[in-house]
Specification:
By secondary structure, chain A is an all-alpha fold. Chain A is built from nine helices and two strands; from the N terminus they run H-H-H-E-H-H-H-H-E-H-H. Chain B is mainly α. The chains are: A mainly alpha, B mainly alpha.
Amino acid sequence: MSAYLLPLAIGVAFGFTLERAGLGNARKLTGQFYLTDLTVLKVMFSAIVTAMLGLFWLSRAGWLDLDAIAIPETYLRPQIAGGVVFGAGFALAGLCPGTSCVAAASGRGDGIAVAGGLLTGVLASGLGFPLFLDFYDSDARGVWTLPSLLHLPAGVVVFGVVLVALAAFAVAERVERRA
Amino acid sequence: MKYSDPYVSGVALGLVLLAAFAFAGRGLGASGAFATTASGTVALVAPAYAAGNPYFERYLARPGGPWREWMLIEIVGVIAGGFLSAALAGRLRRGVERGAGVAVRSRLLIAFSGGAVMGLGAVLARGCTSGQALTGGALLSVGSWAFMGCTFASGYAVAPLLRRQWR
């Protein structure tokens, strides 16, 4: 039972924050693509920066072992292709997989439709998986991080990401004022 | 009730992600819950086929089987948390988010198709906006940042064709 408690608690907190931010609402979420409401960018970038800084400083202080956390391995070309396909679906759906569950939970029929489509799409991709198995496993780079790509110390990259985020927030505020 | 400030909610979401890293040794996810559900369903209907399929087999081979997968339990929590937050804010409402220029049925059809397309994308990319963009982004994974960049570039390219859906 206790094995289920942790993922359940993390999920509740995840769903709660997404809904608070308004990301369970496809109309609000798609404002990102029409530059009328940049909530998606602000929420995602603040979350990434917060977690990244937390990981960096907690591991510096010796309170957290970074090696105990699984970093997703990079398969560059399949992930680029996956991103292009996913982005098109995202614009069609107006919700992503996590936010479709929040939309459905708050009563939105379009959330249920997106979730149903996702299940169908994953099922169909699984059935057709042997057709693109070679591509799926191609261009494997193992654990590949921005510091090793840029040949820079992690601290410099972390600082750089914070600067990029702050610049993005400033641009987002200007864009929203104009909209 | 008005939605929370995006920066405050973003920091809160980051702390949830950090807690997942610290206490579970992994980040957040969503598409994996759909993948394990699909695998478990296929295994119920055609167990021999599912066990021989290289995609479904991965989820069936997990300790505890496809229905006890970490991400499936987490997504049950996401649904509960989303419901709780909407209920507390008075935002529980049955309806379909759409523009006035599009019929409910067309919006639902487009939403379903978008979900299906995202399903293929998430399989190819080994994750979605949660498992790759947020989690891999915070871990500075090159593949995750490439995924995130391509997702938004593609979204911006396709969105103008769908503007009517929201007007």
